[in-house]
Amino acid sequence: MEEASSWRRVAEIDVKMGSYSISNHQNSALTTFVGSCIALCMYEPAAKVGGLAHIMLPSSEGRYMPADGHEAKYADHALKVVVEGMKQKGARVDLLISKLIGGAKTFTNENSAADLFNIGERNYLSIKSLLTQYNIPVLAEDIGSTQGRWVKLDVSTGQVTVRNKTSEVIL
């Protein structure tokens, strides 16, 4: 039996909550699962460098900055470390693009603390504003709803696949 010509084996690198990963390995994909958090997917097409951050909260202002592998917990710090990490792998900042996924309203109880603070929307608005300040365009978004999403960034192409319980889309 012959395999489809577009099939190729990739190593999936799982990005945990509050962390990030950068890769320029062409047979790799960066993956995560987000609910109210935001998956910041960044790509530099000339150098073929990808970065994915799993952002949990909008701002580090007045907060403790973890040094335990959760450098991407806050949107402001996440963007800094991802941009710097991509530069170290050969990416040019002026060629960076981004895609945003997540920000779901995952709690159905309107009286829950997460809904009262609307953390998903605040995460999204924070990172979107920061990307504008950095002059990094947002080429695609899959934001909101009430479902979590699996996210996969293909490092060789910059293609982002987003899957929930009922569908799959390519951004």
The CATH first-level class comes to: Alpha Beta
Number of DSSP helical runs: 3
From N to C, what is the helix and strand string?
Answer: EEEEEHEHHEEEE
Low-confidence stretches: 1-6
- Corresponding CATH architecture: 2-Layer Sandwich
How is the main sheet built?
Answer: 5 strands, mixed
The mean pLDDT is 88
Number of domains: 1
Query: Which percent range describes the beta-strand content?
Result: 25-35%
Using the coordinates shown, work out and report the CATH topology: 60s Ribosomal Protein L30, Chain: A
Written overview of the protein:
The protein has 171 residues and is an alpha+beta fold. It has a single domain (11-170), classed as 60s Ribosomal Protein L30, Chain: A, CATH 3.30.1330.200. It contains 3 helices and 10 strands, in the order E-E-E-E-E-H-E-H-H-E-E-E-E. It has helices spanning 75-88, 113-117, 119-133, and strands spanning 11-14, 20-23, 28-34, 38-44, 49-55, 97-102, 138-143, 149-154, 160-163, 168-170. The strands form 2 sheets. Strands 1-3-8-9-10 form a 5-stranded mixed beta sheet, with no helix packed on it. A hairpin with a 5-residue loop joins strand 8 (149-154) and strand 9. The two termini are 31 Å apart. Residues 1-6 have low confidence and may be disordered. This is Probable chemoreceptor glutamine deamidase CheD. One of its GO terms (molecular function) is protein-glutamine glutaminase activity. It catalyses: L-glutaminyl-[protein] + H2O = L-glutamyl-[protein] + NH4(+). Its EC number is 3.5.1.44. Belongs to the CheD family.
